Amino acid sequence: MNSLNAASLRILQGIGGPAGPAGGYRRAAAHVRRCGCNEQEAPAVGGLVLGVGEVTPAKLATAFATFANGGFRLDYYYIDRIETYGGDVVYESRPSFACGACETARAAPAQRNTQRRDGPAYTTVGSAPAGAAAEQPERSSEIVWPAVPPELVVQLAPPVPAERAVSAQNAYLVTDAMRDVIRQGSGARARALQRRDIAGKTGTTNDGRDAWFIGFTDEIAAAAWVGFDLPRSLGGSEQGGRTAIPMWIDFMREALAGVPDVEPARPPGIVEARINPKTGELASDLNCNTIVEIFEFGRLPRRESDSRYGFDGSCGRGADEQPLEPDAETPAPVSGPSRSGDIF
Question: Whose CA is closest to 216, among 175, 260, 245?
Answer without folding.
Answer: 175
